[in-house]
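Input/output pair, single chain:
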Amino acid sequence: MSGIVVLDGPMGTELARRGVPVPLPAWSAHALEVAPQIVAAVHRDYAAAGATVHTANTFRTTRRACGARWEELARRAVEIARSCVGASHRVAGSIAPLEDCYRPDLSPGRAGREEHRAMARVLADAAVDLILCETFPLEEEAVVAVDEAVATGRETWVALTAGPSGQLMTTDAMRQAARACVAAGARAVLVNCVPATRTLAFLEAIHEGAGGAAIGAYANAGAEEEGIGWGADAERAAARYAEMARTWMPAGASIVGGCCGTGVAHVRSIASSR
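Output:
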């Protein structure tokens, strides 16, 4: 996997694996208050494993999830990430769907523009290197988030999801969403939080829609019985994941990481395969 940019792995499921509570609605953002040292340790471990792009723990630092302290928590997340990774590494600020990323029917669509604008401006002001609009299952809200991220002047990536069952978006819908996000200014389009065993078809779709923008994937571990994560032997699971990731290269993937159910060993396996 020569020339691949290595992303880090998940924050939320890794925190849970390390015994940190991740209650809704704040989910992984809860750890910024109760276990910031564990958040920092996760970032350090991914950096040591070979990741060079690190997503700050801002996926749920929204007003909807965290209330009045959302901005303070978002800035804290960026500060923690920055302090834990190498000077040459890049820190991404995460912008997520305003409601449940697996419930596109709850999306506010264009009506969420002001909230996405506020998050994008806070992340830019906190000096992230890029903004990652991630885990969007709906084109309309993804484009709004990309619009507002691009407006800050920061490099913007977008990650689209068909969900853990691969049914929230068709490949055609993801192809069209990729096209619309690139038209809005996204510099890279990725597939995320789709089972690793089902990622290739979606990656091929965004390759067709991305119009020359960089593409990539950070998949989830799929079902527990697939043995790619979720308590499976870490090294064996990581090797299987890296093997699948190698099949994404011919489809154009140049950015690879891990999502829910993967972990540090998976990132290490990707990095060592380059």
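Residues 5-272 form a domain with the TIM Barrel fold (CATH 3.20.20.330). The chain has one domain: 5-272.
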